[in-house]
Every structure is written in structure tokens, then in C-alpha cells.
Amino acid sequence: MTQTAPSPFDTAPPRPVDRRLLMICLLGALTAVAPLSIDMYLPALPALTSDLSTGAMQAQLTLTACVAGLAIGQVVAGPLSDAFGRRRPLLIGVAAYAVASLLCVAAPSVETLIALRLVQGAAGAAGIVVARAIVQDLYDGVAAAKFFAALMLVTGLAPILAPVIGGQLLNVMPWTGIFAVLTGIGVALFLGALLGLKETLPPGQRETGGTRATLRTFRALASDRPFAGYALTLGLSFATLFTYISGSPFVLQDIYDLSPQAFSVVFGVNSIGIVAVGQVSGMLAGRVPLRLLLATGHAIVVAGAVALVVVVLTGGGLYGVLPALFLVAAGQGLIGPNTTALALSGRPPRVAGSASAMLGVTQFAVGGAAAPLAGIAGPDTAVPMALSIAGAAMLAAVATAFALRSRRSAALVSD
Q: Which family is this protein grouped under (predicted)?
């Protein structure tokens, strides 16, 4: 199955290295819709809270709404891409994302913004789920793990640059201007997909059974023990990361007195950790069993989460919190690509979109549900964030152990 699909680019045939680089850039940019939509306005959350006369939990619900939309949208876009090909659902979704982002600029209340963020996330989900399905069209097993790790090099730039850009934009415009920038990004992604991406799922390999076939596929995936375990791993790991994402603006700015600009630098450093560890994962894939790389990622995240709880409960300062948060973030670079590759390995192209969607809906649904927990006790304590991160990190490790116990998982990770 590896590299049997047609080239996704309609230019003259480039050299193999160039073609791979182009694909990494384009698919990585499409996958970056989620961190761009979430992270760019993280430094603006306190200003948004004040401007819309709302509370920290309501402001965090704008994040939850976007993540919920990202989950819902993948359930729709994934099966559609199996039935109609990858290109059309992708273009429709990215165009709708640009429109929804523009409407967020004029949101008059936090309730309206929450609703628009739900639509924005649902539309942007097409880029995420289709990009992952395209990788599965072209690669499998260790090759897919290497490619997913390479995507993190591009996708990882979004959480590094987004909060930095967001913090700087707040110096020259109100928080609504950030959504105007996201509108421009949506337009650029639409043009990139329109001009640079061809179909990777030929008509003969598409799912033709309609809604019944889609539901059967979802049922089969849900009852597949290793797949369900890996899906839970992604969801709980993202809950760990997203609790940090949603809680850290208030904890680091309101409790530890960081400026929006300093916060964006700290956030960027942690994102560099994700990217760097992801690249190490890609280099080691094929030489080190994927399950060992995955277990190492869990060990790093759990160590950081436990350290964070200890520091917060003992009244430790900023210089104890920052290294712990770095470990929590950096370990995701080992968890994400290897979990995704193991979950999708060996699945036929006609169900790759549905499988990708099920991974995505679990990831974003669990992550979105966890986000408000970081602010449940108000903006004056970091204890809920620390405990939520630790709980999700430990449960993610348990979910991976559940997946790896099956004979099929052992076979998949042995190459």
C-alpha cells in the first residue's frame, strides 16, 4: 500500500525529495488549523474576558467550543472524504473556515463568539482529518510514523508562532483583529489546496455503501480493541495538553505575573520542545519499536505532570512550574505521531477517512471537555490545572497499555 497512490501535486514531476517536502508543507499547514485557531488568541483571553464582561470559565468555553467543532467536523468530513475523495470535502471545509473566522470579528457577546467558534472549528476540521487520511493513502506502518513526525515540524511551528504573533498583534489591535488574521490564513489554505493538491483516493477505492457502510465502519473501529485504546490515548493526551493550553494564560499571567508577550515566549519554548522531540521520534522510528517510543513519551509527560502537582501544592514559584510544563508539552512529540501511526496501520484507503475521523473526534472531544477544569476554582489558583493534567496523563498511559495488550498491537509494532 505504501506510496501507491498518485502524486498529490499537479506540477511537473519534481524530484522525490522535493515532492515529499511539498507534501509535508501543505499537509502540515492544513493540520495546523487546530493550533492556529486555538493558540493565536491565547494571550488575548484575559482581554477578551474584560472586554465582553465575562468570567474565566466562559472565556475558556470559547476554546472548548472550537475544539468541540473540530471533533464534530471530523465525524462529517472523514466519511465524506472516503465516499467522494479527499479534495472536495477539504476545499469546502477550508472555505467555510475562512467565512466563520471573519464572522468572529464582529461577535457582540461571549455567547455569540462561542457559537461562531463551534462553526469555525467544525469547518477547519476538514483540513485535519483529510490531511491525516492522505498520509494513510500513501504510507503505512513505520513509514507513516516517520511522515507524521515530519508533519510535526510544520504543525509545531503553529503553536510556536501563533501565541507570539497573537501577543504582538495585541500591541497594535484589539483581540478581534486576531480573527481577521485567521480569516487571511483560511483564504491562503484554500488557495494552497486548490492549486497544489490533487486527488489521492481514486474512485475505485472509495466507500460506496453510503451511511450504512459508514456506521458499520465506525462500529467496527469502536469494537477494535487496539484502535479504541489508541484513540483514547490520543484523547487523553490531548486533554493533558489542552488543559495546559487553556489554563496557562491565566495561571502564568494572573498568578505568576507574566506579560502577554512573556507568556507567548514561554509558550513558544514549550512548543519547540514538542517539535524537537517529534523529530527525534521520526529519526528513531524503524530502529526503535514504536511501542517503546510511545511508552517513553508517556513517561516524560507523567514525570512533568507529577512534578507540576508537587510544585503547585508546595507553593513553588515560577521556576518550578516552567520546567514541569515543558516536560508535559515535550513528551507529546513522542505520543502523537506514534499513536496515530499504530492506530491507522494496515487499514484500507476506503476507511482511512473514517478511521482518521474517529481518532480526531476522540482527541478533540476529550480535550475540549477537559479545558474548563483548569479554571473551575477561579483564576487565583493553579491546583485544578495541575491535578487535571496529572490525571489525564496517567489515564493516557493506561489507555496505551490497554491497546498494547492485544496480539494485533504486538504484531504491528514489531517492525
A: Belongs to the major facilitator superfamily. Bcr/CmlA family.
